[in-house]
Amino acid sequence: MCRLLDVLLASLSRFLFAVHGVVTVWRVVAVKEEPLYWLLLTGVALLGVEMAVTLKCTRNAEWKWFSPMVFLYLSTVIPSIWFLELSLLQSKLPVNNSSGPELHPLARIPIAAAIVELEPENWVAGLEQTMLIVLVLGRWLMPKGDMSRDQLSQLLMVYVGLGADILDIFDTFKEPEVQTNQTVVYMGLGLFSWALMQFPLVLTQTQQGEPPQGGENCVARLPAPPVTSASCCSNEVWSLLLTVGLQDGPFLIYRLYLMLQEQVLNQLMIFFTCKNILIVLLELYRIFVVQCEQRFGDSELGRAAELSYRH
């Protein structure tokens, strides 16, 4: 029964990713008027193969540290967002003021008429926002693997926060000083793609609870000798390092560049820059605290084990 439920959830989450991927690529084909862009669907087309391999090779229908499903979905959506944003940039340039192609066949369908008539900016913004919603819902629906419910809920909350921060990068494209600056748009899209690489990684910030050591059925055992930790950092530290390296650090540099080089000085830009500085400082402080506590705990454990062996 559990296996059947895992298969159902795996199919549902991949179907959700596939639907959004198809809609995004369809929009690219409609804007570019070139059928060759349907090749962007290669990523979501491989989701069926990926699901079969995952169900066959894993015990809980999900990989432990990396999600190939999310990676394949992003391999379709990220290039599509690039093409749409660059097309939007071209439409803003003085040499090209076209408003995009008319989608007459779909406009004849009453239900789709309002969607088809959306402005290109609204189309792109809608696809970007729904992409992050789909990432959260897809992670929620897919089998949780070896994660506990507490870890899954925490991961989903982290995803929501990451998604909101990532979407802020597109607001910088609307600043009058840089809205036609190709360098800024390329930098922003690069940071957007770089930050999304957090989603295929499954690093939760909670540790699995250790089994209770007490109880009536426990057998007295000699304490184990001190064991050297296999990893220098805990899951929480790795998660914080990834967040600093993939998102908060690059975003801070990007906003400082906009303020100092492009002279984008307004209340929101100053606020988000100060927020980025504060977040990076807090994350570095948290990493320092966790590492100090871990080293102190390891040293105390080693001393206790050594004293136990002497007695």
From TrEMBL:
Record key words, sorted: Membrane, Transmembrane, Transmembrane helix
Pfam families associated with the record: Tmem26
Domain of life: Eukaryota
Entry annotated with the keyword Transmembrane helix: yes
Coiled-coil stretches noted in the UniProt entry, renumbered to this chain: none
The keyword Ribonucleoprotein is assigned to this record: no
Transmembrane segments: 7-29, 35-53, 65-84
The protein's name in its UniProt record: Transmembrane protein 26
